Amino acid sequence: MRNVYTTLLLIFAAAIFICSCVIDRRDKSPLTRAIRYIMIAAPCTMVAYAGALLATNRLAAELIYATYYVVSDILLICMLHYTLQYTHIYTPKTVQRGILYFVVAADALMLYANVVTEKVFVFRCGMMADGDTQFYGIAERGGLYNFHRLVIYGLVVLVVLPLVIKIAKSPAMYRKKYWLTLFSLVIIIAANVLYLALRLEIDFSVLTYGVMALAIYYFNVIYVPQGLVEGLLSSSIKNMDDSVVCFDIEGNCVYANSEAYGFFRARNTEPFEEYYKGWMNGRKLSETEDSDWKETREVNSEKRYYDVSFKRLSDRNDNYVGCFFKMHDETVEVEKLAVERFRATHDRLTGIYNREHFYDVAAKAVQKAEPGTYCMVCSDIRNFKLVNDIFGINVGDELLVNIADTLKRLAGAGSVYGRLSGDRFAICMPRERFDPDVFVNEIRRIGEKSGTSTYRINVHVGVYDIVDRDIAVSVMCDRAYMAIKTIKSSLTDMIAHYDEGIRESSVSEQKVTGEFAAALEDGQFCFYIQPQVSVRGRILGGEALVRWIHPQRGLVPPIEFIGILENTGLICRLDMYIWDLACRKLREWKDRGLTEYHISVNISPKDFYFADIYKVFTGLVEQYGISPRNLRLEITESAIMSDFDKQLILIQRLQEYGFMVEMDDFGSGYSSLNMLKDMPVNTLKVDMGFLRQTSHQERSRTILKMIISLSKQLGMEVVTEGVETREQVDFLTDIGCDIFQGYYFARPMPVDDFEKKYFVNRG
Ligand code: C2E
Ligand code: CA
Ligand code: CA
Questions:
Q1: Residue whose CA is at the smallest distance from ligand 1 atom 33
Q2: First vs last Cα of the chain: how many Å apart?
Q3: Residues 80-83: contacts with CB within 8 Å, 24+ apart?
Q4: pLDDT band of 143, cuts 50, 70, 90
Q5: Cα Rg, the chain, nearest whole Å
Q6: What pLDDT, on the 0 to 100 scale, is given for residue 387?
Q7: Within 6 Å (CB) of ligand 1, which residues are found?
Q8: Are 495 and 435 contacting, i.e. CB atoms less than 8 angstroms apart?
Q9: 8-state DSSP, 166
Q10: What percent of the chain has pLDDT over 70?
């Protein structure tokens, strides 16, 4: 009997060892590790007990028995470790672990000490058939054995407790998981109780350790996770927001979740099967493939969007076992995407296309159309910033919305329109539909509607006829804007067409800016001077006028480059260069004793942005040691008007320093007589040009008379430029003009010529 039991124990122990090796060693999870410990500790206990049963001398039996009890302690510690990992109920602190290990160590010490003390247990002696004495049974348990018992029972309680708590607290699906482990523990306890109660010679309960280890292995690694996975899967499908309908190979609906019943408005499985039949369309399951498609359905008179997928199911051997449909309601995503797409392609304020999208759509429209049949029409509001500043952002916004609405009205079939930036809009339309009169009318209406009655809104329109379909839409728009730039009188003209002239001027613009720096360095810019003469015919000095002596093009007049340099801000460098030459010349004249002659220099409106005019001129005067009286500064009306108060202070400071300040081109711009009285300039330069332009010569002459008499009263000196005839000189002398400048006297000339002509007998 004993031998049979021993053999059984050893075989069983070996089986468990093998199982422990089968557990995936790569799985380093704490739970798997805990199970592995049990599967090592349990067979150790069994082997120890088998060893104890086989012991043939007292000392060996003592030691092996003690080992068996100690290993039992260890097995229980492994069990405790496992249940704590399994239930996640509590993580023992280091101190608690320490106490536990200490108690077990004390128990072990006491058990091994039994060899000497015999206070824990005493052996019963049995005889073998061959006459050898054999010690295999415990005859008596001493008082100290109770300590070991206490350790064991304590550990058993600690092991069982987490499982019981979990069973009480977990949902039904999980309870089974803990029940099974608890059940195997109960078997061990029951077997042990039975062994003690029946006072059996051999402890059969040791075998149940192995049973328990195997049960834990099976329930944890094989059985429970599988069951749990299935349970969880089916409940996730049940609770899914998507509709799921499963079919067997015959096309019978075997499962549909509640969402699917809602989707098909089904009361039984019939609608599902109808759907399946419709999809299969007479095919077999083996002839189908996994696929996805979109479906839209009307639900409660609301359009809903679905992403439907069909999937086939196969078993391990690749045999089809069924299929399922999944319907995902993506209405929210689709609508969100639509909103996002709208935001990305439309302008927030006006709701029309934004620049990027306009470029895309217009490019497609142009490509689709017959070559040469489309035009690009762009609009720009003159001084839109002023509208915002004076009337507020709301009025500005309203104006922009009005323009967008106008575009919507004007756009017919085949037209694309959008907002390019701030106050810029564009419409790409068939040429035959573009009617300038209609546009002018609409633009006028925008101005009237805009709620800015005190301020005239000027919307300007540039048109580019798309002859070359392959250039980028952005370039087409640039060309339309180039045309707008040519609109001079913002009051009468509203529409300008892009033509070859504009293209050429833009090319020459690029040439000028490209060549400027090198030309300046190279000394290609020369200082010409046009004499200024007193009423008595005496030379008083002259105006410095620049000329570009181009190596290929020869003498280039300022009109061909000053405007361009002003637009790009390069003018400042050129002006500083000319001012420097003028001051140098004044110094030369001073050294020759010619101190009564002045030079007038031009200051471009742009110079005020880029240079500190006061600092530059006082600096030059000091550098060359000349009198500021001899340097006259020509400022244009537009420069003064751009920031009246600031310029007023600047002019006063310059005058206090000793400069003569002249207002250039008076009469060509905003010119108001009223303004004259506030303007503290020393000299007024009136251009004869503005007299020439009018047909009512008499009235113009009267105005000129008044200007001159008014400036005299205000103590200003008057210079008339552009004087070409004797009559003009006589008339101007009559009405009180002080100084003349014009071709009648002399054209602008190189300074050397000027000096030769006027300073013949001087210095
Ligand atoms: P502006 O300052 O009004 O200069 C007078 C212009 O009138 C000069 O043209 C001059 O040659 C021209 N002129 C003089 N007398 C007569 C005449 O009897 N009849 C006619 N039809 N024209 C006459 P210019 O030199 O071609 O300069 C044109 C404009 O270029 C100047 O107008 C000035 O605004 C600008 N400019 C010239 N040089 C410079 C410069 O160094 N710096 C800056 N910023 N601008 C300059
Ligand atoms: Ca001038
Ligand atoms: Ca002038």
A1: 602
A2: 148
A3: 80/155, 80/158, 80/159, 81/34, 81/37, 82/31, 82/34, 82/35, 82/37, 82/38, 82/216, 83/159, 83/160, 83/162, 83/163, 83/181
A4: confident
A5: 53
A6: 82
A7: 530, 545-546, 557-559, 562, 571, 575, 578, 602, 604, 664-665, 721-724, 742-743, 748
A8: no
A9: H
A10: 94
* pLDDT above 60 for 740: yes
Distance (Å) from CA 541 to ligand 1 centroid: 15
| pLDDT at residue 491 is higher than 90 | no
Report the predicted TM-score, pTM, of the whole model to 2 decimal places: 0.52
pLDDT of amino acid 229: 74
Chain mean position to CA 139: 84
**Looking at this protein, which amino acid is placed at residue 120?**
V
Q: How far apart are CA 20 and CA 37, in angstroms?
A: 9
Ligand 1 atom having least distance to the Cα of 744: 18
User: What own/partner pairs with CB < 8 Å and gap ≥ 24 does 515-522 have?
Assistant: 516/561, 516/565, 516/570, 516/573, 516/574, 519/548, 519/550, 520/573, 520/574, 520/577
Q: In the predicted model, what is the mean pLDDT of residues 286-313?
A: 89
Please indicate whether residue 459 or residue 697 has the higher confidence score (pLDDT): 459
Residues 311-341 pLDDT 10s? 999 888 888 889 999 999 999 999 999 999 9
Q: What is the amino acid identity at position 682? A: N
**Ligand 1 atom at shortest distance from the alpha carbon of 685:** 3
Length of the chain counted residue by residue: 763
What span, in angstroms and rounded, lies between the C-alpha atoms of 138 and 201? 8
